[in-house]
Amino acid sequence: MLTTQFGGNTPRRLSTSEATREGINMGPTVVVPPKHLMAPSDASEIAAALETARHHVEEPVSPITPPTPHETTVTDKYAFAFDIDGVLIRGGRPIPEAVQAMKMLNGENEYGIKIPYIFLTNGGGKTEAERCVQLSKQLELEVSPGQFICGHTPMREMAEKYNTVLVVGGEGEKCRHVAEGYGFKDVVTPGDIIKDNQDTTPFRKLTPEEYKNSRSRNFAETKIEAIFVFADSRDWASDQQIILDLLMSKGGYLGTRSENFNEGPPVFFSHNDVVWSASHDLTRIGMGALRVSLEAMFKAVTGKELKTTAFGKPQIGTFEFATRLLQRWRKETHRIDSPPDTVYFVGDTPESDIRGTNEYNEHAQNSWYSILVCTGVYQAGTKPRFQPRATVDTVLDAVKHGIEREYKKTLRASLVQTGVISE
Ligand code: G3P
Ligand code: MG
């Protein structure tokens, strides 16, 4: 197996307090987890940053994996990409096999190799850096924004296009801050709108804290140019009322009504998962369900069709984004300057993970190999709507499957080369 020597190119470290749009875009960057989770390090720049990072993540902690020796080699032949909810995490807790799967990728396998990997989740609601700090704790290893994409990550590319935008979803002010971090210049939230006119939502009143955090402005003079649903709505009724008001407005001015209902701003969703895998035994409705609901409601109220746009998996653009991220991660962290022959994508949702991987595989230059696990949305024994290349129980089985498959490919190639078997 062709390998490259690991080491030599130390990734830049980043804390949530230092994370900037540029920093997150540039990679490779390592989010610094709290000190008690860190392997011995010579980094001296961590002190203040660690405190900030610690405040962002409040789950209980467990010890981090000891560092793998530097002589471990890194394969340049293949890589892994992981979905998160239902594969690695469920309801904020790691799926039991996930920690061992990560260790296996980091060299604890019978071949003594490291395998590069990235994370590609439709989830969101916090900055990429903040989410990586949290994931680092959950999986007991360092996860960098340079190897992480969430549902709203590609939305940063829209920041130049629109001036004033409505950002919906997530906890408190978090998504406003994410959007501002992406470079959006003027971000309005549903809270701002309710603060300005509490009659907007007859059954929702702002809490004192929401009232304090919401910003006052004159909406009669505010043209909202686009609506971005960054994360799951915490209050469907009031969020949908506000989105509907804007969609029916004259050019994005609240309080106005269009005659033809054709003048409202565009709506973007960070993904389209109708259901997802949380802590409940059964799947829970997600952002895709809100999208369906909004489109149906618009039709019921106006008689017109509403066209909305979703980012995230299974969109090809998201997988192209992932390809670029993986390429940069492998180059800058592992000094590998060529694409992997195969990327193993491990997911639990046939409609997003398996569909996206299979469709991307059709026109990617390398092979994208879909593996479906049974720890999330997909239920063993049912027929998935999109067929994976392999179905396994857990993420650990998925990692073993990819490693074994690669081993067999290499073995076969060497037997062909030495004339033991023919092609
Ligand atoms: O809300 C997040 C969920 O819909 C899916 O996340 O990690 O399974 O892509 P993930
Ligand atoms: Mg999932």
TrEMBL record:
Database matches in SUPFAM superfamilies: HAD-like
GO CC terms of this entry: mitochondrion
Compositional bias ranges of the Polar residues kind: 1-18
Segments of this protein annotated with the region Disordered: 1-29
Gene Ontology biological process: glycerophospholipid biosynthetic process
Highest taxon listed in the record's lineage: Eukaryota
Pfam families in alphabetical order: Hydrolase_6, Hydrolase_like
Protein name: Phosphatidyl synthase
Organism of this sequence: Pseudopithomyces chartarum
Lineage: Eukaryota, Fungi, Dikarya, Ascomycota, Pezizomycotina
